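Input.
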Amino acid sequence: METSAMLYDANEAEDARSSYPGRGTRNDRTVSLMPADQYERLLNNEDIPTEHRAVWALLRDRHTRVTEALSLNVRDVDLGQGTARFDHPKLSTDPKVVPISDRAVELLRQAKGDREAGPLITGARGRPLSHETVSRVARQAGATSIHAFRPGRTRPARRLAADRQPSGQTTAHDQHEDTANDAHQPS
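Output.
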């Protein structure tokens, strides 16, 4: 019995599918990662408010999204241990407790001041910073976007095998990305 269904090569179909990102990702909206020297200049710039530099340091640590950084409370961060706790990470596969760099700890300590409770990152009036405000200040400081500070935002979510570490080794970040992406792919 003949059908009008088109026959296709499964390998060719898989190659074509793997060249496209997962659902909800646009290749035309990826952001280039800010060069390390520009990043260091911005973090060292005392003219930029400490709270914004603290957000940028958290984003550069790879584990934090903008909204997660802005929603941190003073009690969510252990500056002595260098960790941050997220009660509601975006993905269920995301870690709830993540390490933060010494640089981020230093900036967060300055931004926190002597407060024992409340929002960790606040503006001059003591109110939490908004996504719009941190995005605007980042652009004014010379970043193409607030996402230019975050390494995980520089490429489409679906990564090809050629992008992996040499000799087939993957980092914990790669494994986390793959797990998160697989959760969003249809079977």
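The chain is about 35% helix and 5% strand.
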